[in-house]
Amino acid sequence: MKRSSPVYFVAGGTDLLTSARQMPLVGTLVDLSGVHDLAFIESSGADIRIGGATTIAAIAAHTKLAARFSALSQAAGECGSMQIRNRATLGGNIANAAPAADLVTALILANARLKLFLPGGSCAEITLEEFRSGTGALIAEAVLPNLELLPRSAFAKLGLRRDLTIARINLAAMAEFSDGRFGSVRLVAGALGPHPIRLLRAEGALSGCPLAPASLRVFVDALAADVDAAIAGRASHCWKRRAIRGLGLDAIARLCEMSPRDPLFDETW
Amino acid sequence: MDQVARRIPLIDGIEKVTGRLRFTADRKLPGLAHSALLLSPRAHARIVSLDPGDALDLPGVIGLWWHANTPKNGYNSSIWYAGQSALADERMFPPVVRHIGDRVAVVLAETEDIARAALSRIAVTYEDLPSVLSAEAALDHAGPVTDADGPTYLNPVDEIAFAHGDLESAMARADHVAEVTVRTPRSHHCAIEPHVCLAWPEPGGRVAIHSPCQSVFAVQAVVAQALAIDPDRLHVTKAPIGGSFGGKAEPILDPICAFLALRSGRPVRMALNRQETFTSTRTRSAAYGRMRIALAADGRILGRDTEVLVDIGAYCTGGSYLPGSMLQRLVRLYAIPAERYRGRAVYTNTLPTGAFRGYGSPQIHAIGEIALDLALCDMGLDPVAARVRNIVAPAARDPWQNLPLGNARGADCLIQGAETFGWTGRRAERKANSRFRCGVGMAVATHINGCFPGEDEASTATLRLLPNGHAELVCALHDLGCGSDTSLAQIAAETVGLNASDIHVAAADTDTCAYDLGTRASRMTYIVGEAVRQAGIALAAAVAEQAALALNAQSNEIVLRCGRATANDRSITLAELAAWLSTRGTDLPAATYTHRATANPGSYAAHFAEVDVDTLTGQVRVTDYLAVHDVGRAINPMLVEGQIHGGIQIGIGYALYEDVAVDTGTGRVHADSFARYTVANAPEMPPVRVLLIEEGEPTGPFGAKAIGEIATIPVAPAVVNAVNHALGSRLTDLPLLPDRIVEAVVQIERQG
Ligand SMILES: Cc1cc2nc3c(=O)[nH]c(=O)nc-3n(C[C@H](O)[C@H](O)[C@H](O)COP(=O)(O)OP(=O)(O)OC[C@H]3O[C@@H](n4cnc5c(N)ncnc54)[C@H](O)[C@@H]3O)c2cc1C
């Protein structure tokens, strides 16, 4: 590879080839979809490691991963359509860096770290928040540190349709939950800004509380307050500050392995 | 009968699913030149200059055309016969562009990539003109918007008023008068096949046009007008179509493609990409309707006052017919003693509108049925019972055209539908105060069967026996993918004792077919079907006459069945008959019949929907659906059901998701891709049940009436009415996007 010619990566091509943006006319396009060593899910060790070219379908189907961090499995399972999931990759979702990227919301929740191959040939490890696309770095793998994972997690999203829909908001939740009571709670929402954000008010409202209508009511109000802080004044604000309540209940119901139509949640309303 | 009323698969189905059928874009012609259009980024602007830069120097570029070097003839892309009078305000390339996506220039090149690359080298200088971006704004622009380059651009383009009975006294007598306004969105057809056209020079100064269209004769008429040439110089053939729904009713590329073929002497291909199909073809017009309904305590509608404003976009096309079409369909549904209607169509600097499955009916019935439901709700009246009381009876006449509505079976649809759906019980149970609310709603609709009393509502079919004993059907037919070729083959087969698969349907061709209006106005089965049936009867008689000779019998003794002619105990296959005739030097029998319509009965439908509404997220799921249709008689029940299923899919999109959404500040089309234009996908489809009312229409072939367009018409109001039932809301702005639902719920909660 000549140094002077710029290098671009393509994996599933589901963003790059469908984008309205023009493909660059000069440069080298490197297809990562055939690079076997970049496609793996390693969930038996302490930290979970997922190769950059792993398909979203593979992530969605991995039962051991689901047992440890179901928010990511669920985000993968709801990403695009079956045809998209079969081609789309984790690295592409991260590098494309759309505000609504579903997997990124779940990865931020887990405080994921990225292993990169840099243009000069060296390697680096950074946090996902530190990653900037367009630097020529190759995402070799995402690492989900064991210490960051809480026992339960879930993902939920809202788009215009139920399926094959880009999120207007997505939400990933992770918590300790036993005997009907929450311990620590972490929440991250996407599409409320350029990057997914933590919902600290809502985390505070739910941490240490029982799963009961009274605490859920405080929780959904806090979710709305988090949305107010993030996007007040935007056209979508009115809808998002209400919709997040529904999305929050959906995520918590999923995390507790209950139906959002369970009377417990219905009474919250 | 063994061919009609049967679930026969599409006669071209295997070709389609095996990919053997060649669509226009698949055709490779030797020496084919490719084109790309430069489209306007401005809503309304004069083109001051166009600098080709080095576009013409790019290797492979053949030429560049724009308003300065193309014919300046005005035309109207909606005309369907040569010389038809219609506001001819469109040009191949106008000097003043009137909407974002309007045509500025075309490049012809050896490949499409080269043509598109050349576009980026062209620099156009525009001088912006004031633009009108909403129908309301258009009303303030009564009079010329610009006379820059004629034809004068006047608002309203069309206005129609109608009054019947004593409305004032009806309003005064009423126990309740409700006033409701409804807005329907601009929607796009979303055919899988984007617009495409091929044209090539033919000997004798002629040009051939091959395109997926809805009428080869309409293409011929429009192109002749645009090029100001004799229609006989245009040889138009129908290509297999990858969906239209009205989107390909008007030739958009064909005039330019024919021009380029004549100018370059080469076969030329024009093909739009998906985004261009969204921004530069046609849409269903957005409408605003205000209705005042005077009700008696028992649910009788005493009077109705309707005002409709239709945004027809930047060119007249057929948009000026819309206020009249809407009136026609509105007054054929209920028997109302006093009716007043005013409809106006206005130009705006937005993309042009045209036909889309129902031509005004989806808009007007959404307006009427949503308004009626809210009026009935005010009075606590049952929506089904009240509609049964008001719906027209068989043999009623409409008050506007005074035409008999035929065997109108709307009441049967309502009564049998309510029973099958379990309406009464389901309507009564409504759980309030929970996050997810369930509701049921319904709506009825009527639609036309052809263009009668339009004087040109006629169709000519020719059926001829083939040497192999099959028959060929020649008629300017356009199966838009819904299976009309199959239904018509069934009708032909039934009359001459063949199987539907033995009928070879010739592709429409202006050189070999008699004039036909094409596929529009729900006329295929009802009008063309009757022409085919009569031609079939005549062919059967001609075949019987010959068979009688062959079998030494009387022609009235001949029975035609299963490809055989039988008399007494002697029989001959039609192939043998054909061979026998050939050896005797006799021409094979053929028959041509021209059917002139004498009626325009109504098709009726009642749809019932159940919805589940999330009051927090505003998401609506349609969870159960029943469609009841008065089809007279189903020639092919499976295809009828297919039409209804597809109609429901389009209607759910209309109710809940689809909006081209032109920005009223900039004129930009927001939803110009499938990423932004949301249609209902398979997961959004409810379980669908279909119930057919088959009471027979005496004027239709084998009693049949139309299904194609009406299938989608009641869907949106049924879904909206169900949502209003679930929430106790008065939502009337379509589509019911989550944001609108949430806003309504918040408002209801505030009011306690
Ligand atoms: C119909 C449709 C539906 C979709 N639905 C969703 C959805 O629901 N949720 C969602 O989040 N996304 C969705 N997407 C977007 C897309 O599928 C995802 O973002 C996907 O993960 C992209 O992966 P890819 O391998 O296809 O990326 P590509 O298109 O191959 O690449 C995208 C970008 O990432 C870069 N890149 C790829 N791999 C690497 C790597 N290993 N290291 C560095 N850079 C890399 C490429 O250079 C390019 O700039 C949808 C897309 C489509 C077309």
UniProtKB/TrEMBL annotation, chain B:
Pfam families: Ald_Xan_dh_C, MoCoBD_1, MoCoBD_2. InterPro entries: Ald_Oxase/Xan_DH_a/b, Ald_Oxase/Xan_DH_a/b_sf, Ald_Oxase/xanthine_DH-like, AldOxase/xan_DH_MoCoBD1, AldOxase/xan_DH_MoCoBD2, AldOxase/xan_DH_Mopterin-bd_sf. Keywords: Molybdenum, Oxidoreductase. SMART domains: Ald_Xan_dh_C (SM01008). Gene3D superfamilies: Aldehyde oxidase/xanthine dehydrogenase, a/b hammerhead, Aldehyde oxidase/xanthine dehydrogenase, molybdopterin binding domain. The keyword Oxidoreductase applies. The keyword Oxidoreductase applies. Residues 18-130 form the Aldehyde oxidase/xanthine dehydrogenase a/b hammerhead domain. PANTHER family: ALDEHYDE OXIDASE 1-RELATED, XANTHINE DEHYDROGENASE. This is Xanthine dehydrogenase family protein molybdopterin-binding subunit. It comes from Ollibium composti.
